[in-house]
Design a protein that fits this description.
Blueprint: H1 2-18, H2 32-46, H3 53-60, E1 68-70, H4 83-95, E2 101-106, H5 113-133, E3 141-147, H6 158-164, E4 166-171
Parallel strand pairs: 2-3
Antiparallel strand pairs: 1-4, 2-4
Length: 175
């Protein structure tokens, strides 16, 4: 019992001493008026992160309105035909550093669940790499895999499966 109790008490003592409360270190005479103005700038700092109406409208038009990259069976390399699309989105992200993007990698229903999750992740990461090369910052883009869980088409034929082999690009506020 002593062998367990002594180390546990020592850890409690060390843990208790390691943290210092921040409220005790800052005595104040009357900081209420001084603390009220700093509350306004954080809300102002949050606004640029959210896309404005002008930005949202431009995301729906032209090249930026296209949000999917499609793949051949069991492939995750981004085809050259999608380069202009990714250049446009990369340029937009570079000009709007507060904007975030989620890339969802998808697969058709063929293959095991584990295989499709891994393939979907490689597809999403490939699109992210291209966007970063086109000007987006690494922290703006998050790749995730949905595997076969979000099909565009539910038929069991090649025409449908080809629609499900894709990466979808979603901007903040769309997911």
């Amino acid at each position: 019992m002593k062998k367990v109790l002594i180390p546990a008490l020592t850890l409690l003592l060390i843990y208790g001493c390691a943290s210092t409360p921040t409220t005790e270190t800052a005595p104040s005479a009357a900081p209420a008026p001084a603390q009220t103005p700093p509350a306004a700038p954080p809300s102002a700092a949050v606004k640029p992160i959210q896309p404005s109406t002008v930005q949202s409208e431009s995301l729906k038009d032209g090249t930026l309105g296209k949000r999917s990259v499609f793949y051949d069976l069991d492939k995750y390399d981004v085809k050259d035909e999608y380069r202009p699309l990714l250049q446009a989105h990369g340029k937009y992200l570079a000009q709007n550093r507060g904007t975030k993007m989620l890339i969802q990698g998808n697969c058709d229903e063929r293959g095991s669940r584990e295989y499709n999750i891994a393939l979907g992740q490689r597809r999403a990461e490939g699109v992210k790499r291209m966007l970063v090369l086109m000007g987006a910052s690494d922290s703006q883009v998050e790749p995730v895999s949905l595997g076969e869980e979000k099909p565009k088409c539910a038929d069991h034929a090649e025409g449908c499966w080809s629609q499900n082999r894709r990466s979808d690009m979603l901007y903040g506020g769309e997911y």
